[in-house]
Amino acid sequence: MITNTSLEYKGDLYPSKIVSYEHEGDSIFFHTDNKVILKVTILRDSLIRFRFTTKGYFSNDFSYAIDKTQLHGYNFLELTEEETYFQIRTSKVKCKIQKADLRLSIYDLSDVLILEDELGFHWEESYEYGGNIVKMSKSSKDGECFYGLGDKATQMNLKGKRLENFATDQYAFQKEQDPLYKVVPFYIGLNNKQSYGIFFDNTFRTFFDFCQERRNVSSFWAEGGEMNYYFIYGPQMQDVVTTYTDLTGKPELPPLWVLGYHQCKWSYYPESKVKEITSKFRELKIPCDAIYLDIDYMEGFRCFTWSKEYFPDPKRMIAELAEDGFKTVVIIDPGIKIDKEYSVYKEALEKDYFCKRADGPYMKGKVWPGECNFPDYTNPAVREWWAGLFKELISDFGVKGVWNDMNEPAVMEVPNKTFPMDVRHVYDGNPCSHRKAHNIYGTQMARATYHGVKRFAYPKRPFVITRSAYSGAQRYTSSWTGDNVATWEHLWIANIQVQRMSISGMGFTGSDIGGFAEQPTGELYARWIQLGVFHPFCRTHSSGDHGNQEPWAFDEEVINITRKFVSLRYQLLPYLYTMFWQYIEEGIPMLKPLVYYDQEDTQTHYRNDEFIFGNQILVCPILEPNAVGRRMYIPRGEWYNYWTNEFSNGGREVWVDTKFDEIPIFVKAGAIIPKYPVQQYVGELEFDELTLDLYFKNGKEKSFVYEDSQDGYDYKKGRYSFLSFTSIGKEKELIVQLHKEGKFETNYSTYKINLIGLPFKVKEIEIDNERIAFDEVSFSESHFLIVDKEFSELHLIGE
């Protein structure tokens, strides 16, 4: 598209020489003699926006992706003019803009080149639709790697790939199939141990070529709209991801139950079937917090209705499920059945809230209810109306979460599986066709749903999950990876997809455990559960057409493995909750691919399987049948095998033996891992002790524990507890320092500290500089001790 010789004669146009410039506050405008304007905005010293127009003026500046609540500011900005270029300098980078053609290059302050234009910005008039096809090509150095781009079913490293962003209902997609359900036009480049990011904020169909067409050229382009992109400087990948996540926004904290295990199927009905499923979980002692109702709970698939035959008294049923610890989550799709007796349809029709074709009639398409019209969620009035529709579900009936599906938007029985491109949208006062609005349709539906659920769930926190999303959707919703398949290949895909989503700003993501389409073997389901419990969102979901997929659909061994790993997730809930807190507070992804964890180790650059769960747990799933172990890469540092407590030095590839009821899990030396007792659902138990697994390290390591009331908004008023542990290990002593922030008081009063890998025999214990007898802290040779939670410093002294 960018450099193919067969396209070079299609009329590509380029900026000509700069004839004038203006500096206004944080922005600099460069004007060329062929009416191109480049606006360079310094949002932060390491975050620069580049916006081009070819018509001599800019259209209204509007974005659904950018979090407008974020405040930006730079420390230093200097513009200088040289003979052949202008230079913009911040306290982090230098940007040179060539006077002859607007091509730009970016350097660090040591004059090391980070990124430079190849052809740079160019465009082509779209005679079919009007406007421009906007293009950008960059030079790429040998060895450069590329990551991110959200929901892609391909290798972690995107070098050599060409990918497309167009939200698409891809039922039973396969490896390398593209595009998929989500659109995240953000990637990370890594070269010479320096990372940078590019966010191409353009909602038209976009494309990215990472040196596929030409070896040393990367490019991105869109079928319409502006060339509008943000450059983010690292130099660490952590800095790039955090800055991008700040730019596009972070969610609020979910209630703790949302981080438990969820069970779903298309479909659980009638009520007796729902009760049968939930009762079986409690009977088998497999923890579960949420049960989902798919489209069959509705009356003829009409949204916001209940089947009188299958669910005659939903309020009673939901209350009874809640008594047993189950929260009810229901599906809501965008298609509204054309039925003049149906109140939701009648109201939307009266208020003119449905999407229209270019010539005026309402857009009509077939989905589950039959022929439907579709609300225009880019209209603020429609979003407000849609939010209000959730009152009965949430306030009156007690539903705890809403699941948005089919919102790419998906339409049946049409070749392109979605709306015609001539459909018109309000786009928050920036009227446009579906070509521009398609990729954000699902996000705006999820946004409206979120505001409705939040309004009626208050004072509790909302839970929303969506299939389709655009950058910034994480402010409103969690997500899952769509209609996958019960194959080993898809287990591999799920592992990479969720890692990639995590470093693409959308951390609260999981896959359909076991696969949605087709039927997994017991072995595949067990291996998927073992991976899925380490994903931020954890749900089994399947199509009823392919048989049963509850844990007990397999043999006793699979039931036991499911119980073991789901119970492990419930033990790790305080660790997972802390991960989420760091995500919403600091933009730190909850899952970290090895290249994110240690970009300077080139051995991590092409690793797909291993990832860091939180900050201190290394996970490597088993991705093939009949495995008795696997080779895996342990990143640099010191690690303990979770199952055996065996110590390992990292920075090497090793063979790890595993059993069917294990996968390789390692814990970073020095880590303090918090654990709750196993509960069948969040809030089932009151407990007076928090377990802390402390893995000895000869050196220093920090660990954190975040807790609050597990729901509600008191945490925003300072009623939370954030514990900072510092573990300092020496040859014959161990010091644990504790600092607490926040006003929340936990119910438990003591810590049970399990000492793992302690290399000496303890002869003396001091707490806050006071010597303590062994029996006062229940210390024994089994290497655990129980201490009051109010301690500031624990000191173990060896013989």
From TrEMBL:
<dbReference type="GO" id="GO:0005975">
    <property type="term" value="P:carbohydrate metabolic process"/>
</dbReference>
<dbReference type="InterPro" id="IPR000322">
    <property type="entry name" value="Glyco_hydro_31_TIM"/>
</dbReference>
<feature type="domain" description="DUF5110">
    <location>
        <begin position="689"/>
        <end position="757"/>
    </location>
</feature>
<feature type="domain" description="Glycosyl hydrolase family 31 C-terminal">
    <location>
        <begin position="587"/>
        <end position="673"/>
    </location>
</feature>
<keyword id="KW-0378">Hydrolase</keyword>
<feature type="domain" description="Glycoside hydrolase family 31 TIM barrel">
    <location>
        <begin position="251"/>
        <end position="579"/>
    </location>
</feature>
<dbReference type="Pfam" id="PF17137">
    <property type="entry name" value="DUF5110"/>
</dbReference>
<dbReference type="GO" id="GO:0004553">
    <property type="term" value="F:hydrolase activity, hydrolyzing O-glycosyl compounds"/>
</dbReference>
<dbReference type="GO" id="GO:0030246">
    <property type="term" value="F:carbohydrate binding"/>
</dbReference>
<dbReference type="Pfam" id="PF21365">
    <property type="entry name" value="Glyco_hydro_31_3rd"/>
</dbReference>
<dbReference type="InterPro" id="IPR025887">
    <property type="entry name" value="Glyco_hydro_31_N_dom"/>
</dbReference>
<dbReference type="InterPro" id="IPR048395">
    <property type="entry name" value="Glyco_hydro_31_C"/>
</dbReference>
<dbReference type="InterPro" id="IPR011013">
    <property type="entry name" value="Gal_mutarotase_sf_dom"/>
</dbReference>
<dbReference type="InterPro" id="IPR030458">
    <property type="entry name" value="Glyco_hydro_31_AS"/>
</dbReference>
<dbReference type="InterPro" id="IPR033403">
    <property type="entry name" value="DUF5110"/>
</dbReference>
<dbReference type="Pfam" id="PF01055">
    <property type="entry name" value="Glyco_hydro_31_2nd"/>
</dbReference>
<keyword id="KW-0326">Glycosidase</keyword>
<dbReference type="InterPro" id="IPR017853">
    <property type="entry name" value="GH"/>
</dbReference>
<feature type="domain" description="Glycoside hydrolase family 31 N-terminal">
    <location>
        <begin position="38"/>
        <end position="209"/>
    </location>
</feature>
<dbReference type="Pfam" id="PF13802">
    <property type="entry name" value="Gal_mutarotas_2"/>
</dbReference>
<dbReference type="InterPro" id="IPR013780">
    <property type="entry name" value="Glyco_hydro_b"/>
</dbReference>
<comment type="similarity">
    <text>Belongs to the glycosyl hydrolase 31 family.</text>
</comment>
<protein>
    <submittedName>
        <fullName>Alpha-glucosidase</fullName>
    </submittedName>
</protein>
